[in-house]
Amino acid sequence: MFFSNGQNWTAICDLDADNDGKTNGVELGDPECVWERGTIPAGPATGHPGICEIETQECLSKASDICPTTTTP
């Protein structure tokens, strides 16, 4: 995605590549989309913009291989 957008961070920062409800910038520690090559992002990374983390409701609802939480007597 980065290369297909001309290696332009601001072009993909506001996108949500993995559809988890968080922008790529938020997940990589740059919620304001101001990062520039050679600098450190404003904050810590909170996720991976290409992986829909199962902890989010958006991703949990998409998961088809989650086992139900039932108990057997």
TrEMBL record:
It comes from the Eukaryota. This is Temptin Cys/Cys disulfide domain-containing protein. It comes from Magallana gigas. Residues 2-51 form the Temptin Cys/Cys disulfide domain. PANTHER family: EF-HAND DOMAIN-CONTAINING PROTEIN. Coiled coil: none annotated.
